[in-house]
Amino acid sequence: MRTLRKFFYFRLAWNNIKRSRITYLPYMIATAVMSGVFLLIAGLLLSDSLTNTPSGRTATMMFGFGLVVYAIFTFMFMFYINNFLIKRRKKEFGLYGILGLDKRNIGRVLLWENFFVIGGGILCGIAIALVFGRLLFLALIKLIHAVPGSSFSIAPVAYALMLGLFFAVYVVTSIVNLIRIHIASPIALLSSEKRGETDKKGILPLSILGLVLLIGAYYFAWTVDIPGLAIGVFFPLAIVVIIATYLLFLCGSIVVLRLLRLKKSLYYQPDHFVTISGMFHRMRQNARGLATICILSTMLLVTISGTLSLYLGREEMMQGMYPFDAQVYVPEDATTEQIVAYDSTLQALAAENNVTLSADASKLIYELEDGQEYAQNDYVWPDSVFVDVPTLIFFGRSFRMDVSGTEDDCLSFIQAIRDHYSESFSETPNLIVSDIFTARVDGYGLYGGLLFLGAFFAVLFLSVAVLILYFKQVTEGYEDKERFLILQQVGMDDQQVKKTINRQVLWVFFLPLAATALHMLFASKIMAHMLKVFQLNDWGLVLMTIGASLAVFALLYLGVYQLTARTYYRIVRR
Amino acid sequence: MALLQVKGLGKVYNTKLGMRQCVALKNVNFEVIEGEFVAIMGASGSGKTTLLNILASLDKPTSGDVLLDGKSFSSIPDRELSQFRRRHLGFVFQDFNLLDTFSLKDNILLPLVLMQTTVREMEERLMPIARQLSITSLLNKYPFEVSGGEKQRAAIARAVITDPRILLADEPTGALDSKASANLLEQFSDLNAIGKTILMVTHSAMAASYATRVLFISDGALFSQLYRGDETNREFFERIVSNLSVLGGADIA
């Protein structure tokens, strides 16, 4: 008897999922994407092959940080989707209650359902990770210029971490669902779906506040021109923009629509009439979701264009940070004779390593104050800043030189300096050479890793945004289905109905995109100033990467629009 | 000439696999003269909703034709059907079918807006109708803020604001309590008194007793009809009920 009962809940849960797959499938996909990407990052983080790459350590550290952020984000998002789905099903639970299933029984069905969906999602996620893991690993290796021959495997610990995270998700969402079922009475559950909405008060001041905040933040972001300050204010500004976005989507949209409605000659036009009213309804219900999509896409674009700018601009940054290819410091107590002698040691080392050295004095302009010019003839300045050495430049306790040769030879030349240093100065070689070649190698790890991480987060944000959009469309589809029918009965023809609904869907879709583009335009300047801290002074590059990532994003967005619009019409026309 | 002519109307539904056929209407003939208030009665499944849908041009008959003012429905191209519906027919539905995104006023104005009427004309037409149906004070409310009876009155206002040739009502009292139903039927009688032609489908003898003529439909065919003459509602109601018992169906309410 017991086994039969168990079987019953199991079956009921299974049937529920099959029946409402149009809403459960995305939940499952979300789980799959989230768990798959998590597994990938964790796998990369914990694999020996990455740690063994030259710049692996930097990348590992960043990935560790990224993983923590990702885990938190995953948790919150799964929580959000679960709530969204469970709210939609209240009516169904109320019905079960009235049919005689007690709350304990419903709870059991829910546990099974949740188990199926999350379990299935995780299985798909593992499959995704295994299929795409190798591909992504190859991309990463290329980005950070790691040694070839590294292989990819997902460490068992990564699986354990992923399973742990999603077990936590399962437990928490299940508890939330059970609590929801327990506190509500069947009648309350049954009637909770239809709830009216009235125009709220206080919308006008709030939207003015939102507008003021947004304009202020934009103005600040556009005019700030001190790199240090730019970094300091970026996050506060981002928060202000987030608040302003929510205010404007939630309240500003309603104010605008209300103004449009007041203009009767405009409002009472067949094209606008249904659209404006429909938008009212939609904005009241979806403003938060749309604002969230806008924020997510902005974050996505800031991340991807920022990391891409750093990656693409890394050579420029290196050139800025290292006007000379290499700089070799000498101990403070080095005598002029030792310094002059070291010049030839350096030349000898260079010859050994097949590189040639040169020194262009005009480059010192970077370091000298205005009006001072390097004068070769001044043998030793009173404060011993310059020492005239035979072939190179000695200034401020260090040799300056440009090194030409293959990248590998240059690197071994630098290593050779380190090795021979003590012979000349009897001092341990610690931080004595600062050079662009080592920096380049590190830079690949740092900026390549950042870009990779940025791409990961872009995928994450994008999938979250896509899923939110999808859920919105599905919900609206069910609501619009009725409206569609009524409009036809009242005498709107099929074409007109399709056109109006299309227009609304377009607005809902592209409002967040437009707002994102605007945010990005104003973010570009402050981002450029922030990147100056990294010696990357190139607003054009930042604008270009923003433009490129925005274009790619818009294309993807359009694809998603097409896909969900199709689902939407399928629901409406059924 | 009769306002509405129904000639040899038949409707056959094919089941999905085409194995079985379901005859919803067979050879239905009747006419409605301008200014009449006709009720069509029948039990569930008797074909009355199919009939109304065809009269509303929302569905097409498999045989026969419907003529409004002598114009055959089958002669109207699909493209122009919704325009035709908008101009000549008014609808009242069982579950009101008001759009929850519109205020009552906008719901009522919807057909006029679709016809691209000027704002001034809309306002001019709205006020007398709203007064007649006593919903003037409710115009700026939303459907979820008013009662079922009030919603149905708004739906009637929407149906008549275009001044249609004929008002079609599908179980208009189906979702209302008895008091709201009586109130609504009074409104129908009043509208009829000022010359509106009304055709109402119902299974309630009480609702039918407000009509000037009742057609009985059974198993997709016209069964019989009763004229009110100068009887009171009460007397007419008794007659409808006794006729129904002959028919052996429909509830008495």
Structure description:
The complex is a heterodimer of chains A (574) and B (253). In chain A, strands 1, 2, 3, 4, 5 and 6 form a six-stranded antiparallel β-sheet that branches. In chain A, a hairpin with a 2-residue loop joins β4 (393-395) and β5 (398-404). In chain A, 77% of the residues lie in helices and 4% in strands. The two termini of chain A are 41 Å apart. The longest helix of chain A has 55 residues, at 436-490. By secondary structure, chain A is mainly α. By secondary structure, chain B is of the alpha/beta class. Chain B contains eight helices and ten strands. Chain B has helices at residues 48-55, 78-88, 104-114, 119-132, 148-160, 178-193, 205-208, 233-247, and strands at 4-14, 21-32, 37-41, 63-68, 71-72, 89-92, 166-170, 198-202, 213-218, 221-227. In chain B, a hairpin with a 6-residue loop joins β1 and β2 (21-32). Chain B starts with a strand and ends in a 6-residue tail after the last helix. Classes of the chains: A mainly alpha (574), B alpha/beta (253).
How would you briefly describe this protein structure?
With 574 residues, chain A is mostly helical. Chain A has helices at 2-19, 21-46, 48-52, 56-88, 90-99, 103-143, 156-183, 186-191, 203-223, 227-262, 264-267, 270-312, 314-321, 336-352, 407-425, 436-490, 494-532, 539-573, and strands at 326-329, 356-358, 386-387, 393-395, 398-404, 433-435.
